[in-house]
Amino acid sequence: MRKPSSGKTTPKRKSSKKSSSGKTIRNIAIALLCVFLALWHYRSGLQYYLGFKSRKVSETEAEKQLSDVRTFELLNKYKECAIGFDVSQYQDTIHWEEVRTVEETFPLRFVFIRATVGKDKVDDQFSSNWNGAKRNKIIRGAYHYYRPNENSLEQAALFIKTVKLRKGDLPPVLDIEKLPENQSIDSLKVGLRRWLEKVRDHYKVRPIIYSGNNYYEAFLKAEFSEYSFWIANYNLFVEDFCDDWQFWQFTEKATVKGIPRDVDINIYNGTPKMLQYMTIN
């Protein structure tokens, strides 16, 4: 090992500070460039919200408008498709009679409602949301949040006990987002397939699988290609459906009248009439 010279101690420390400072400046420059590109990319939406408004808006209102730009842009791009949302107890009590549109422009055609979690949890608002969607004539579907470290057949049994699907409802959904702690990925896939097959056999319809895009690409795409996928991808610059996506959840921060908290918005890769063909006969 080479012995460091004591006379070079101070210069090395200064060089380290300069290097750190240089990295910080580069990171700030990159961040500013990303913001600029995003604003330019969605300039038409920004004009819609800010440029042509006659009244002045507060700082809080301006921030909210900016956060909704991507939502407006994508909904406008896919306005011929069926637009929907998904809810759970985290949205609190929903006033279903008020739920009509998103951005006060685009009709909401369908909703996925969380029914169960793991082997022993029923969503606190499931019954209210399930019935409310029906009264409001919104096509409804139910989903199960899968816990990888719990028995898959017990989880399927809870979902089946809780959810009574009727003609006109969407197929059941398996929501898988977490990796297991005490088992291999291969064991996880076995459990997922057991849930899917048990639920399919009960309702006589093939379930839909929900997951994030990275999870889908890494663990689900090849193994479960016979299933339809509902994918969450919030990437600011993703504007197009992938061929394998049946539903696309592109934001978790939309505002819908009648729903107290922010809500996820989804686009179906087809028209409202095509969505009808997906429902249970």
The tally of strands reads 10
The proportion of residues in beta strands is 15-25%
CATH class of the largest domain: Alpha Beta
CATH names the topology of the largest domain as TIM Barrel
In terms of structural class, how would the helical and strand content be classed? alpha/beta
Supply database-style keywords.
TIM Barrel, 10 strands, alpha/beta, 9 helices, about 280 residues, about 40% helix, eight-stranded mixed barrel
Description:
By secondary structure, the chain is of the alpha/beta class. It folds into two domains: 16-67; 81-278, Glycosidases (TIM Barrel, Alpha-Beta Barrel), CATH 3.20.20. The chain contains nine helices and ten strands. It has helices at 9-41, 43-51, 59-67, 69-77, 126-135, 152-162, 185-203, 213-220, 272-278, and strands spanning 83-87, 101-102, 106-117, 121-122, 139-145, 173-175, 208-212, 228-232, 245-254, 263-268. It has an eight-stranded mixed beta barrel with strand order 1-3-5-6-7-8-9-10, surrounded by five helices. The longest helix is centred in the first third of the chain and has 33 residues, at 9-41. The termini are far apart. Mean pLDDT is 85; it is low at 1-15 and 42-57.
What's a concise summary of this model?
With 281 residues, the chain is of the alpha/beta class. Helices cover 41% and strands 20% of the residues. Strands 1-3-5-6-7-8-9-10 form an eight-stranded mixed β-barrel, surrounded by five helices.
Architecture blueprint of SSEs:
Elements: H1 9-41, H2 43-51, H3 59-67, H4 69-77, E1 83-87, E2 101-102, E3 106-117, E4 121-122, H5 126-135, E5 139-145, H6 152-162, E6 173-175, H7 185-203, E7 208-212, H8 213-220, E8 228-232, E9 245-254, E10 263-268, H9 272-278
Parallel strand pairs: 1-3, 3-5, 5-6, 6-7, 7-8, 8-9
Antiparallel strand pairs: 1-10, 2-3, 3-4, 9-10
